[in-house]
Amino acid sequence: MKDPARPPLPNVSVQQLDYLVAAVEAPTFAEAAVGLGVSASALSQGLAELERRVGIDLFEADGRRRMLRPQAEEVLRYAERVLGQTADLARWAQAHREGRTGPLRVGLIDVAAVEHHPEALRAFRRARPDVDLRLTVAPSGELLDRLGRGSLDLAVCVDPEGAGFDAQPLLDEPMAVYAPDEARVGPPEHWGPWVSFPPGSQTRALIAAALRERGAPFEVVADSHQPEVLCEMVRLGIGWTVLPVVQAEKGPAALRRARPEVLVHRRLAAVRRADRPPDPAADALVTTLLDLGPAPPPAAAP
Question: What is the DSSP letter of 114?
Answer without folding.
Answer: I
